[in-house]
Amino acid sequence: MQNYARVNLGFKKGKGAVLWDFDDKDYIDFGSGIGVCSLGYSHKKLAKTISKQAHTLLHTSNIYQIKPQEKLSDKMCELLREPYYVFFANSGAEANECAIKLARKYGNSFKEKKYEIFSLANSFHGRTIATLKLTGQEKFHPNDFAPYPEAFKFFGNIDEIIANLSDKTAAVMVELVQGEGGINPLDKADIQKLAKVLKEKKILFITDEVQCGVYRTGEFVTSQIYGVSPDIITFAKGLGGGVAMGACASKEDIFKFGDHGSTFGGNFLATTAGICVLDELEKLKVDGKLDETISEFEAMLDSLVERFPNLFVKRVGLGLMQGLVLKNPENLGKIFTKAMENRVLILKSGKDTLRFLPPLNITKKEIKKGYKRLLKTLKDKELA
Predict the structure, then answer these.
(1) Which residues does 137 contact at the CB level (< 8 Å), separation at least 6?
(2) In terms of DSSP H, where are the helices of 287-384?
């Protein structure tokens, strides 16, 4: 199906933050599969873990106990620093669908039913019918897929969300750093105010950390940076290191038997990979290597802003979820393409932002090599 605007490029192998095409040309990847390959490519321990599990047991039904699923749940709660109930799915959209169902069931527990779920206007929460409607960008609501579910509302900022809360509001979902909306970190004071108001009004606070979670911004979850404790947190992308997996963590065990499920969700392969990924990323954090890499990468991007004031307005983002805002939005596609021609892979976000989501274990050598290729790209005379 013609779902993707694919470029004329493909790869046969990868190692670290480097990919090789079919002509054996190497590319520095500053996108890591849109934030999925958190440990880069061909990570020895992850590959060994997946191989061992594939030779043991790939899958059983969730009818039966799955010990790696339990172990991964415990590991996530340890890193979250408080207890949560975890449901494992196969993608970020599925994780957010789970959160939506939790919110609706929670709302129906009140005598006066609550059913509204709010989000922000520049948000992105997935491509299922429900998560599309909860996404606040109108371009994701084409009439081709109408009619959409009702009672999803989005607003321009946190103050507008707070002002429109009612006795019908069951939950508010936000990305603490908007990924598709321009790599936009929300204001910390605004988020803390929102969390306080929602708690007082008994409205669920949901953070969509599909892209900004799993150490992407420097801590296990970005809500830890913001000093808030959400009722529900959703995960995916980097959690499996390339193995498809999503997760929805809830402080309350709202579902009962039969309310929700997944055939593949949380199987032996995915959860064993997830345990390995979290163990390796935790080591990077504890050893100080992750923070060091973040500083290196931020310095590289700041250097580009300084060297090309004609092209860039500023650097935005947190941790290794970064963006460069362009003065001229027409350069977004041009730089993406020219960077690829110079064998460095970057991403786009919103209308005017270059997006960078490198592997969390990217080396100084790989950063330096990618930087040189970006310099060559940005010196192109066609950019203005």
Answers:
(1) 121, 122, 123, 124, 180, 181
(2) 289-307, 331-341, 364-378
Q: State how far the Cα of 215 lies from the Cα of 142, in Å rounded to an integer.
A: 34
Looking at residue 383, what is its pLDDT? 85
Average pLDDT over residues 208-212: 98
φ/ψ of residue 57, rounded to 5: -170, 120
Walk across the sheet containing 312-318 and list its strands.
312-318, 321-326, 353-356, 347-349
**What's the burial of 260, exposed, middle or buried (CB within 10 Å: 0-12/13-18/19+)?**
middle
In 3D space, the residue among 269, 276, 264 whose CA is nearest the CA of residue 88 turns out to be 264
Taken as a whole, the chain contains a residue count of: 384
Which residues in 209-256 belong to E strands, given as ranges?
Answer: 232-235, 246-250
What integer best gives the mean pLDDT of the chain?
97
Both tokens of residue 213?
A: 């979670």
Over residues 66-100, the pLDDT tens digits come to 999 999 999 999 999 999 999 999 999 999 999 99
What pLDDT, in 10s, does the model give residues 307-351?
999 999 999 999 999 999 999 999 999 999 999 999 999 999 999
Nearest to 210 by CA among 221, 197, 199: 221
Integer Cα distance of 291 and 38 in angstroms: 15
Backbone phi, psi, residue 330, to 5°: -65, -20
Q: Read off the pTM.
A: 0.97
DSSP 183: S
